[in-house]
Amino acid sequence: MHTSTTTLLLILSAFIPVSGVILAITPYLMPSGECFAVTIPSARSHDRTLVGYRRMYCGIMVACTTAVTAACMVAARLNPDHAFLPCFIIGLPALFILGYALMLVFRVKVQHVKQERGWHAEQHRAVAIIGSDGDVPHPISMRWNLLYVPVFALTLAIGYAGYDRMPERIPLQVNLSGQVTRSMAKSPMAIWLPALIFGLLALVLVYSQYVIVHSKKGVDPDDPRRSARAYGLYARAWSVFTLIAGLIVCMLAPVMELTFTGVIASRQAMVIVLNVLIIAIGGSATLSVMLGQNGSRISLGTHDGAGMPRDDDAHWKLGVFYVDHDDASVFVPKRFGVGWTVNLGRPTTWIMLAILIALIVGGFVAVMMLA
Length: 371
Fold this sequence. Notes:
It is a single chain. The protein is mainly alpha-helical. It has a domain at 1-118. 59% of the residues lie in helices and 7% in strands. It is built from nine helices and eight strands. The protein has helices at residues 3-29, 48-78, 80-117, 148-161, 192-214, 224-250, 252-260, 266-291, 347-370, and strands spanning 34-35, 38-39, 169-174, 180-185, 316-317, 321-322, 331-333, 340-342. Strand 5 and strand 6 (321-322) form a beta hairpin. Helix 1 runs antiparallel to helix 2 (48-78) and helix 2 (48-78) packs antiparallel against helix 3 (80-117). 31% of the residues are buried. The mean pLDDT is 85.
């Protein structure tokens, strides 16, 4: 096998264990008052039964991740082009599906434990921080997203300056051996293709920033000040990372233009793309482990309340879909996993999703027409 091809396969294969390990340790990244998408008293987080469930989930996911990784490595040795890619494309989503299915299984088990132990909220308590919140960090301003503008200006400048150097057939897709498998005819519209593709990605990233800025805060009513600061650090860190990672990824648009003009070879571009993905995914994984969901792993002193200030399990359908018509929040922290999700009980949510989907589909159609 060619050395460069081996390198590409190793880089791709690394995504499987990284993703699998993050899935495996997800139960340990959640706040102490949540276990497999079920609300529990924080003081009961170390209950022997619940600890056993977390270990069992983690063990199963690690074993399956090891099996999928081994299968991909064997496939890479047998046939990189026709065996490895199908194994990778099937194996990676399969791990996510398995992780979700296992979460549902253990969610039912935790619900039974909760019922048997008699854990319930005496009353629903909300929290508001009164006074100055100057010591509570906030996400960065949405104005920082204007930094995407010079990236796309550079992309178009490279495209127009190097148009005469573009070949009559511009390569769009190559296999792991570096052979072109798809190309498009040279035309002025080809200059806009990279900007359009990564412009769609930038749109999603800006939307992600908006979600972080306007999300409901993950604050514990039993310990409002400490949890508010932890959440603030968590939200700010993710907003900074989203911007930096987004700018790095969108710098692939100028790289794509340079590939069109022949300055960068297709195989070199592929290596650059995979390394950028490693930076983005590796950074995301590192941040998840360091901070936990809602900043649960940030050490600002501990507080494990004996009670349950609230119990909104009924609003979390299948553990991950939040539906509460009485909650004015459109964006809320995830119940299982690191990040944010939407309140499907609000009409605003559906309007925003419809607009976002329409923009993405419209952009995708435009890309297909150009290509």
